[in-house]
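Much of our argument rests on the idea that a fold can be written as discrete symbols. Part of our work consisted of pairing the sequence of a single chain with a tokenised description of its backbone. We regard such an encoding as a compact summary of how the chain folds. The amino acid sequence and the backbone structure tokens for this protein are reproduced below.
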Amino acid sequence: MNPVVTLYGVGHCFGARTVLRGVDFTLMPGSCAVLTGPSGTGKSTLIRIMTGLLRPQEGTATLAARRVGFVFQEPRLLPWRTALQNVLLPCEPQTPQARRNALDLLEAVGLSAAADLLPQEMSGGMRQRVSLARALAVRPDLLVLDEPFTGLDGPLRDDMKKLIEDLMHDGHAKAATAVVQVAHHEQDILRHADAHFRLEHGTLAAGQRSLP
């Protein structure tokens, strides 16, 4: 079984500021890695390199995933498209089967009655659930969760976390889907996370499940 993501000796700078140095990282299919670290330490840069959105200045980055799904801190929905249309956005071609799958995902995230609503007609928690459904609509080989609970209050945060955990194990995601989660709080870490990494001062180290 080949890794979904492989980084070897990755380094990156912005001007005179080094954000990554000598980073090695491997993510296997079906695994879940949690990435922690202080704000401004390069976590977003590392995610962009992992997913092929940024080419490292040093070292090599290999992405074997054909399909990548993203759930960001902000839902990033198109305001002129309905919930269903936003979920269908990454699906090409948009076949009747793709539409059925999108409706199934909206039902799975508890939004079957909101399929025709525009983002401004939904609450923040609803918009984030649409974002999750959109990420899963492509049946991703790699799912990136970039602090998806930021901005949600306690109950909504817990509900969203449980929803992601349930969807990853009930057939809505492929069994081999690999997950990278960026987290700031211990309570946000997915229960099936099997590897924990901390990025600080440009270096990535395997660590224990504990956050400051």
